[in-house]
Amino acid sequence: MAVEIKPAGRRGNIARMATLREAGLIAIILALCIAMSFASPHFLTWGNLRAMMMSFSIEGIVVVGMTILLIVGGIDLSVGSVVCFSMVVSGALFLSGLDPWTASLIGIAASALIGAVMGFFVTVVGLNHFITSLAAMVIVRGMCLVVTKGTPLSLFTLPPEFKALGQGSFRDIPYVILIFVMVVAIFDFLLRRATAFRKVFYTGSNEKAAQYSGIKTSHVKFWVTVLCSTLAGLAGVIYMARFGAATPTFGAGMELNIIAAAVIGGASLNGGSGTIFGAILGMALLSVVTSSLILLDVSVYWQDMIKGCILLAAVSIDHFLHSRKF
């Protein structure tokens, strides 16, 4: 007989906490924007705002997958390498004579395959996400170096209609932002409304109870891992179209920004909680902080330290909130 999961009380507290966190993030972002408008006359210019939105929109696509993976109780340290791998595979196939659209689809499919391999080791072999993705990060980065022989691929011969994916705009709104908004809208809706995605929360909240209720938690974790890598592959293709190149070292350290954004936005490292909207706010906050530090001419070394401190603060808050009884 199936056991019914009744996490309503706890989920209700988590939902209220997430709403408060999102409201707090919006207030912090607005306060930073107001302060920077006085500190630098360039901050609120359309050029700077457009650059910020373009930057966090592409990374935001990866954040969506990472957030869902964190909710299910996993983590993926390989997303930066997978983004690079998608660029490299797609670029190499294009240079070998394949059209860029087909090459990009193969690059995304290859990224999904990496997620499937990680999902296999997690759900069948029994390894945890951290170790599996750490190994994948190193292996995939090595594959990028092997494919390119350590030399960046110049892709300036990409056709204009493909470059428009990363550089073009519709009525002065970049296609990158439109794609990002579409991805966020789709997965935010699915995460809130779809029955299949509700299993993600149940698995992350209490895997044993989810199994007793009839949920195949191994299937849930497997497909969420594949989804995270697939979205990273999509981001890689967009980066390739934007920059017209595929560099084997691209994306190194990207996982720090991605995980930090998701955790700042309310995704728990313990699983079971998080929202797409909150994670995007976390990404926006990091983007505003980065832009502010650049405009204030702060050394890049200090920028990394500040981002690390923000991540540590977010993880500490997450630990404090989830150590309490709901």
TrEMBL record:
| Keyword terms | Cell membrane, Membrane, Transmembrane, Transmembrane helix
User: What GO molecular function terms would the record report?
Assistant: transmembrane transporter activity
> What's the superkingdom here?
Bacteria
Regions crossing the membrane: 20-39, 51-72, 79-98, 104-127, 134-153, 173-191, 222-243, 276-295
The record's listing under Pfam families reads: BPD_transp_2
**Signal sequence interval, chain numbering:** none
Membrane topology per the entry is: Multi-pass membrane protein
**Any one annotated GO CC term:** plasma membrane
The record's subcellular locations are: Cell membrane
PANTHER family registered for this protein in UniProt? ABC TRANSPORTER PERMEASE PROTEIN YPHD-RELATED-RELATED
Q: What is this protein called?
A: ABC transporter permease
